[in-house]
Every structure is written in C-alpha cells, then in structure tokens.
Amino acid sequence: MKQATARACSNIAFIKYWGNRDETLKIPMNSSISMNLDGIYTETHVRWDDALASDELVLNHQKVTGQALHRVSEHLSFIRNRLNINTFAYVESVNNFPMGAGIASSASSFAALTVAAVKATGADLTERELTSIARLGSGSASRSIPSGFVIWHQGHDHTSSYAESFAQPDYWDLVDVIAIISGEHKAVGSRMGHTSANTSDLQMARVNGAEERLRICQQAIFDRDFSTFADVVEYDSNLMHAVMMTSRPPLFYWLPTTLTVMDAVRHWRSEGVQVCYTLDAGPNVHCICTRPYADVVAQSLRAIAGVNDVRMATVGGGAQLIK
Amino acid sequence: MKQATARACSNIAFIKYWGNRDETLKIPMNSSISMNLDGIYTETHVRWDDALASDELVLNHQKVTGQALHRVSEHLSFIRNRLNINTFAYVESVNNFPMGAGIASSASSFAALTVAAVKATGADLTERELTSIARLGSGSASRSIPSGFVIWHQGHDHTSSYAESFAQPDYWDLVDVIAIISGEHKAVGSRMGHTSANTSDLQMARVNGAEERLRICQQAIFDRDFSTFADVVEYDSNLMHAVMMTSRPPLFYWLPTTLTVMDAVRHWRSEGVQVCYTLDAGPNVHCICTRPYADVVAQSLRAIAGVNDVRMATVGGGAQLIK
Q1: In this predicted model, what pLDDT tens digit does every residue of A181-240 receive, in sequence order?
Q2: Which of B6, B16, B4 has the alpha carbon at shortest distance from B277?
Q3: Which of B205, B262, B263 shows the shortest C-beta gap to A202?
Q4: Which class in CATH covers the domain with range B2-169?
C-alpha cells in the first residue's frame, strides 16, 4: 500500500512572512525566521489509492468537501505532477489542538501533508525540496519541516525559495506561552491577507528593512541575547500589524485584550522578565520567554481578564514520519 | 495697559501632522487638514508689564512654573523679538475642558496665547503671520487660528509654513462626537512623539502619500462626499498610529476600549451610518459624523463599556479677541 503518516509542528515566526512576490508560487516578499512549537502539531495520513475517483479529505474526524478539499487537492496535484502519480489520495488529518482556538493550522497541516504524501509514493526527496513543496500549500508550512529554529529563504523561484534549520531545538531554551484571547474564527484568513498586503502604503518599507531585522534576529538567537531578540521580534510584529491595519480594506486582528496583553508584556520586560510578544494574523499573543520565566508569565497571563486559555510550547523538532 | 484676551478652539486633524523636518521651527513632514471644534476652547489673557521680573503663567487658576512656564516663555520671547517688546508678560489661561480629559490643549493654548500676546502689543499682524507664530509654540496651534476647515501648508521655512481656512464652519455640517476613554495623562506627550516619528521605518511611506491623501480629503470636504472622506480620514489615522507603534521605542496610544470603539464605528458605517473615526496622540476616539447621525452615535458610544464620557463639537470658528 502506498501510504504514510507524518507529524509536523506549528511554528511561530519571529521575522514575519506577510505578502508574496508571486501569489501562485508563494514566493514571499521577504525571508522569515521561526521556531517550531513542540506539542502543537498536525498528524496526517495519506494513502494513494487506485480505487478512488477523487481526492478525499477527513479533517479532525469529519469528511470535508468544498474549499478546504480543493486546497488540499491542488497541493496533491502538484505532488502528482512532480512524482508522476496517477491516482487520487485519501487524506486523514488531525490537529492535536482545537480548531478555532486561534492557533494557525495551515503551517502544520501542509507540512504534514507534504511529508506524508511524498513519502507514501516511496520517493526520497531532500528536506530542502520538501520545504519548497510545502510552501506551495501554505507559505509558512515550509518552516514546519526543518527542526528547531528555521529560516525560510525567500528565493526568486520554486527551487530557490526553501527553508532550513539554523539551530536545533536545544540550542536555546525558549518557550512560547500563548495567550488565547479568542476562539472565534478569523474575520479574514491569512491567505486572503497576504494578497492584500501590497495594498498598504507601508508594506514596501516593512519589506525593505526585513533582511536587516532577520540578520539581527538570527544573530541574537546565535548569541542567546534576549534583549536584542525581544526588541527586533516585537518591532517586526508591530510592523506586520501596521501593514495589516493600513491595508485596503484594513485588517484589524487585535482585540481589546490583545492590547492589554502586549502592554503587560512590555511592562514585565521593563521589570526584568525575559519575555516579548509576537502575533500572527490573529488576536492571540505569543509571549516568547526564556525557560526560567515561563511559569510566571503563564500565571500572570491567566490573571488577565479576557485571556481565555494559556498554552505553552518549547522549541519543537522537524516534521517526521510516524508510521 | 498693553493687554488682550483671546479665545481659540481646539481642532481635530483629518490628515495628520506627525513629525517635523525642522524641530526648532516646527516645519512639519507634511501638510495637514483639520476642523476647529466649536465649544472646546482656551481663553488666554496676556498683559505685557514693565513691573515684572520674569514671565508669569497662571493656568486654570493655578500659578505654574517649570517646564510649562518655560515653553510659554520661549514663545513669548519669539514674539518679543519679532515685535521689539522689552518687558515680561503675565499670562492667564483657562481651558473650558478638564485637563487630562484627553483633549489636547496645546493647539488651542498656543493659538490663544499667540493672538492675545500679539494683539496686546498693539501690532496688527496678518492672520497668516499669526498662524506661523502659533506654529512655533505647537505645530497644530497654527490650525486653530483660521476659521472652520483649515489647511496647514507645510512650507519650507518660517514664513512659508502657515495655515489658512479653505471652508467656513457652515460649509459642511460635521460633528465630532468624542468618545473619552481615559483621563489619564499621556505616557508620552505628542511633542516628544514628534521627535520620535522619524525613527519608524514607516514614517517616510506615510509622508510620501500625505499630499495625495490631503488632496482627496480636501476634495471630499468640498464635495461633501462622506464616503470618500471617511475612507481617507480613517486610513490617515491608521497610518499615523502605525508609525507611532513602530517608532523606537514604540508609542502605543490605544487602550483596549479604543479598539472596541474603532471597530464599532466601522460596523456602524457598514450599516449606513455616516460616521468615521480619527485619533490624536491619545486613546480617545473622535467619531466624525454628519449632523443627522450625531445623536445616535453619541448614544451608541455611551453604551460601550469603557467609554467614560462623550463630548460633541460642531465645526468651530477661528481664534478671536474677546476683550
């Protein structure tokens, strides 16, 4: 049987991906950096099956059709073309975190899907090529395949736009303490958001400085220099949300409690706690801290009205086959 | 006796002033547009007095020294030099709105101070020159001297940077319904903020588009085209706050309720209410609406938890002598 199961973590970007140079190939406007989130993952089983008349998708134990199936099917078609597969696939995917909890699932989903679908064919592609393929499904999925701290090189075409690890999970004991502020579905998904990024007058200014911020961020990780890391990570997150809020139409992902938490994090850091914030295209606040501060940060976040839940993740490994 | 009393309204900018090309002369990075706020004003009495050994300032019935006096004294010194005055002045200034209510007082204060101090000398300067002088005290004060809807031309030196009216108060029945969210003192005053504006990677992008936004905004006012007006006013406010949040260090003026109100305003407009928001360097939300919607907007704002007070102002006239 041509089947395989893979697991891939979610990741949180420190230098953000927002907007594409090429929408179809998902060549991003700038390179980005992230860490994988240990324990927050998607497990995906793929079976290439001659008996199927179309691709099938079971997501969190429910059969899915429509747009979600279409997006998966498009991704499978790229893999079919690349590896000369002529059959449809049965895909079963489970997130170990609740849907709509405000944790993005597209990165871990397309990373796991890519690894499972390719391995199920028996093909032996390099990790680098797997990251390029995952990128086609969801840009940030490319960063969920390599281990630990990952850089996605923007590149200029399909093969030059790929991700690789630059430090293993145990290199620096960072913890992402996630303040979950809303479980509501996003008003505008990040996929739509990427296409609107270039409508903001501020996007090019964000992009022009990205390479320098990335260099500073990567060096701060190499040096385990939390103060420099915190400044550039918060700055980069603020820049991305500035672009979002000035897109046309504007995208406001922040909720009132989001502001409260960001303000609290800045205040805690001013008191010596090694913590900084970064946000995805949503209202949740990822509070990145060093290990010794993780528990007190989690406890303090739980005490803030409007924080519904708190979840912790250390630095995670790369995508892996589990069957 | 060489004395005079003047009254000047506060104003709210539709195309914002944020950052200077020349800090000393307060030559702004871009031209700006505002409307005066009727009924929200400062009344200032100035007496040039040979008997004084230094300038004196009584602000809201309290004698003031230190930084506030120093700033007024600097402004008086410019007027002394310009008009060959050799005496100190006694200045008494009263705002008809509470200090720390989150309504900026520097625009109305320096407009009233300029008009009173100049008129008290007996000199007869043009309105244009008065606006240039007021600008030296506080950039936005230049816009509180002409009547109604006002443009401040950025210019390139002291005399070319001035403000003038382009439509009288009765030209368009706009109302500013101000949601007062905090009476707390600003963490960073707007004067400091202006000097930090150019530390944001986004400032030049904001500035580069300002002339076009100003043209669109002014035309929308001429045409009484609320829809176009609303889009450009909110966009410009978002751009300024994007610059603030990405300055180093970042300036976050928004409070949680600020976000709630901005979101509500966008929602009300989507339902057909002629209302849009704009914010100064503070958490209060200025909800600009056409007259027929003012009461329902005020009522709806009062129903939002965290809105401490609501204040309404129609379009105000220019600064005037009152004694």
Answers
A1: 975 555 566 677 788 999 999 999 999 999 999 999 999 999 999 999 999 999 999 999
A2: B16
A3: B205
A4: alpha beta
Tell me the domain boundaries of chain B.
Answer: 2-169, 174-314
Minimal Cβ distance to A202: which of B242, B254, B262: B242
Q: Which residue out of A16, A202, A214, A304 would a mutagenesis test of the B interface target, given it has the greatest number of B Cβ atoms within 10 Å? A: A202
| Beta strand residue intervals within chain A, DSSP E | 2-15, 20-22, 27-28, 32-49, 56-59, 62-64, 88-95, 149-153, 162-167, 174-180, 275-278, 285-290, 309-314, 320-321
From A292's Cα to the closest Cα of chain B, the distance in A is 26
Fold of the CATH domain A174-314? Alpha-Beta Plaits (3.30.70)
Q: Which residues contact B70 (CB under 8 A, 6 or more apart)?
A: none
pTM for the predicted model, two decimal places: 0.94
- Can you tell me the distance from the alpha carbon of B243 to that of B247, in angstroms, rounded to the nearest whole number? 6
Please list the residues that pair with B43 across neighbouring strands. Answer: B7, B94
Chain A residues with CB under 8 Å of B187 CB are none
The DSSP secondary structure of B53-88, one letter per residue, reads SS-EEEETTEEE-HHHHHHHHHHHHHHHHHHT--SE
Residue with tokens 């309504």: B103
Report the C-alpha gap between A6 and A322 in whole angstroms: 5
The span from the CA of A37 to the CA of A16, in Å, is 16
Tokens of A205: 């200014």
